[in-house]
Amino acid sequence: METGVEEAEASRPLPIARIVAPRSVAVVGASDDVGKFGGRVIHYLLKHGFPGLILPINPNRATIRGLPAYPRVSAAPAPPDVAILAVPAASLEAQIADCAAAGVGACIVITGKLAEAGPAGAALQDRVLAIARDAGMRLVGPNCLGIFNPVDRAMLSSSLALEEEGYAPGGIGMVSQSGALMGTLLSFGRHHGARFSRCVSVGNQADLTLEDFLAFLVDDPATRAIGLYIEGLKDPQRFRALLQAARAAGKPVFIVKAGRSEAGAQAARSHTASLAGAFPAFAAVCRDAGAVVMEDPQAMVLACDAAIRLPPWPAPGLGLAPIASSGGSTVTFADMMPGAGLRLAQMSDATRAVLARWMPETHVALPVDTGSFHEGTSGDGLSDCIRAFMADPDVGAVVVPMTTQPDMAGRTTLFPPLAREGGKPLLYLMTAGAVGDASRDVMRAADFPFFDRMSDALAVARALDVAAAGRAAGDVAARPEGAGPPPALPRGSLTEGEAKRLLAAYGMPVTREASAATADEAVAAARRIGFPVVLKGVSRAVVHKSDLGLVRLNLRDEAALRTAFAEVTAALERAAPGASEGCVVQEMARGEAELFLGATQDPQFGPMVLAGAGGVLVEFLQDVTMAPAPLTLSEARAMIEGLRVAPLLRGLRGRPPADIDAAADALMRLSWLAADLGPRLAELDVNPLILRAAGQGTIAVDARATLTEEVTT
């Protein structure tokens, strides 16, 4: 029979499932004093009923909390699965070495002041990691607050959140790079009746990473929804694949990303580089994989909980139906909806007929104030209206923002059965303070979510709507006919003509044009193309030509063209002395609307494409969508339809609709260009892409690009 050490050695590296739910735990730095980290770890293991063996480690005590204590881990009768280290940084290396020699499977390192504290701490973290890896021992942390596992009653943490009783097991799994935030979210979720499966604070991720624990949660049968608090990723491509795996497993993922405004998105040569940035690329990849990026960590927990305990959101894009006995609460909620990207439902005739039984026809509208009922607010009337909303095809969810009123708790008992009967989410807000606690207790007893703030309910409604859109895996992108290969082009900044050759190689229509070194050549080119024309100065040293007076539009005759040629060549010499490459004459393209298209290489996630409102205001308007390349045609169209200018493209005030289908085709083709070139393409702008009337196509009027290396055929 194997000894304890041999058994532990045989299991190295210890599977994450055994780290999260160990059979035995050593607490290094254990104490009777709950004011100390090690004292709290022991206290919480006992308090929450850890079913395995607890080994306190303290060289100065024979017993701790009635348990035999040992001077070091290697002196314990058998090596534990997990050792939790809450010791000063100065003694950490020796303790890790002892754990490694003893055959410990994994260490949860609460100790901080390592890599996050500067070079000396980083060096210590590297030494500790080397010791662990040489022994095949895994590390969680350092600088973490451990693991919360209500399913297996393994609360491997010193977080004060564990002072609370009753962490019943549930389906919310979380991974957080902030330990203190993790504890706060558990306590917050418990207040709302949310229940958790396994939650991990990963700290510095010296060894085991957020991606490792995300992979565990994706496969974990106890976990039904996943929340992530992310500061940085160790393996972005693996992270992306895991989000896709979570979608395939039917587990919604809700994410809060710290550092949304990173410096890398600020200074840039092109529109694409300035609009892309680290966070937009992160959000685009999450959206593409069906995950939901949120702003508020507490709302993230509520979204996880709602995804588990509420009936499923029927379909993306449906409206909400607010109803309550307070006109102030329902109207305020309705006023806040557009800012959250939500809308009121459009009631069907059948729904209107039901409401008309209870209130004057003049008041039949959303939001519904039940105070206008003929006999005043009644349980029967409220229930009848909610049932009608549940059956209405345009209603995605019913919202009940309850204010102070008689018998709040009694009225609250109506809502969980109505939601379960109707099969759609019902978002219940108890907006009163402590006076509403009895109503909250009703919801907890009914195992039904509730909200205290309108902003939380709005954020969750939006998150569930987005999650519904991402439930189904996307189609596989197929290369369109005539897309590629790219032509041979030099490294560095391309001229407009070279950039357009690249676009044309992927089937994107571009303007007819000809180079001109003299005014006579410009006139000859214009005669071939046909007046009116555009004249542009050409230089690789110039980024935004119009800013420097290097573009002349709508030149209608030879005289105007010759005057413009003299002015542009003079301006070009001033802007780029000795770097002029002459001028180019182009056809004058017109259309119904303008878009900006861009492509870039994100250092973490690879090729990305952008679409936005075009013209000189592209960066000012910040009306941009972004997605990883390549795209399907439907994905490209969805990006364009997601712009704030989309209503203009569809036609407004008598203007004909623009050719959105052709614009989507151009964006899809650009995405294949970006995917093919990969890291060789630093950035590419198409601005503007002119959209002609529906059915008449698009044309790229201007383009610029930068290649990191030469492209050969």
From TrEMBL:
Domain ATP-grasp per the UniProt entry, residue ranges: 500-707
Keywords, ordered alphabetically: ATP-binding, Ligase, Nucleotide-binding, Tricarboxylic acid cycle
GO biological process: tricarboxylic acid cycle
PROSITE patterns attached to this UniProt entry: ATP_GRASP
One of the record's GO molecular function terms: metal ion binding
SMART domains: CoA_binding
InterPro entries to which the protein is assigned, alphabetical: ATP-grasp, ATP_grasp_subdomain_1, CoA-bd, NAD(P)-bd_dom_sf, Succ_CoA_lig_flav_dom, Succinyl-CoA_synth-like
PANTHER family assigned to the protein according to its UniProt record, in alphabetical order: BLL6376 PROTEIN, COA BINDING DOMAIN CONTAINING PROTEIN
Family: In the N-terminal section; belongs to the acetate CoA ligase alpha subunit family.
Name of this chain's protein: Acetate--CoA ligase family protein
Organism for this UniProt entry: Neoroseomonas marina
